[in-house]
Amino acid sequence: MVKDYDNDEEINKYLDTMGYNIGVRLIEDFLANSGIKKCRSYSETVDIIAKVAFKMYLGITPSTIGGNDGGNEFSLILDKNPLVDFVEELPSGRPSLSYCNLLSGVLRGALEMIHLPAEVTFVQDRLKGDDVTEIGITFLKKNDDKKSKRNK
To answer: Which residues form the signal peptide (predicted)?
Structure first.
């Protein structure tokens, strides 16, 4: 990809798109094999992502930091990130490259498929010198059709 794209932003976007396409397909496998029921809140959803999905597919269990006042912003803290096990440092001249955008895309795609659109970003990355890898998840508010129908 580094050879195919001119700058880091294009590579990061491509990695996110790849991840999104994986997430769109992976959610079906996850729902079939995990046996979970419908989550009742954003915090429960993030808990399932951390404790079940990451364990199933990456063999790790990130810790969660949750909730702003609106209850729709959360962070997953990865003490270990298997995606970067074989990467010692970013290529020279590529300071804004984010290999982990693949994970952002996977989460975004899977959440979208269960009608929970979200913005998923990397807040911290060990490859860039941070102490931990932190993934930020902001659930985008959706219109509640039931409420709007009652108000008519």
So the answer is: none
Residue extents of the structural domains in the chain: 8-150
Amino acid at the residue 11? I
Integer angstrom CA distances of residue 2 from 15, 19, 139:
11, 17, 31
* Per-residue model confidence (pLDDT) at position 29: 95
Q: Running DSSP on this structure, what letter comes out for residue 140?
A: P
Looking up tokens 């195919």 gives: 4
pLDDT at 112: 95
Note the CATH architecture for domain 8-150: 2-Layer Sandwich (3.30)
How far is Cα of residue 105 from the mean position of the Cα atoms in its chain?
A: 6
Predicted model pTM? 0.84
Task: Please tell me the distance from the alpha carbon of residue 22 to that of residue 26, in angstroms, as a whole number.
Answer: 6
Reported as a single tens digit per residue, the pLDDT across 54-99 is 999 999 999 999 866 678 899 999 988 887 777 766 767 777 778 7
Chain center to CA of 24: 12
- Select from 24, 70, 71, 22 the least CA-distant residue to 45: 71
* Tokens, residue 130: 């941070």
